[in-house]
Amino acid sequence: QVQLAESGGGLVQAGESLRLSCAASGRIISINDMGWYRQAPGKERELVASITSFGSPNYADSVKGRFTISRENAKNMVYLQMNSLKPEDTAVYYCNADIRMSVFRPRTNYWGQGTQVTVSS
Fold first, then answer.
1. pLDDT at 34
2. What is the mean pLDDT of the chain?
3. 10, CA 20 to 30 Å: which among 53, 81, 86, 103?
């Protein structure tokens, strides 16, 4: 079994920063893409940022220049550094990863339980 555990959410004021962390644990052979998604009340879940196993990042236009995604492959972790936060960044942030548990099975997509980020104006 594989689990993704997020941490680092909280309540901040506009312009401040937060760093989210996500740790993948369990029987893991390899992890391909990892990413962060968010879902605000009444809205669909959307991609915030993703990163390949080689470290190539991809960002939503709304966070480019403010957020930075990174990962530590040896620790099965992915991070999201969020700077210059805005009230519209308020959402539940979810970690996502494509994980291979066996050489005989294809990769499976996993989600964390989410961490709340609230930005006050």
1. 98
2. 97
3. 53
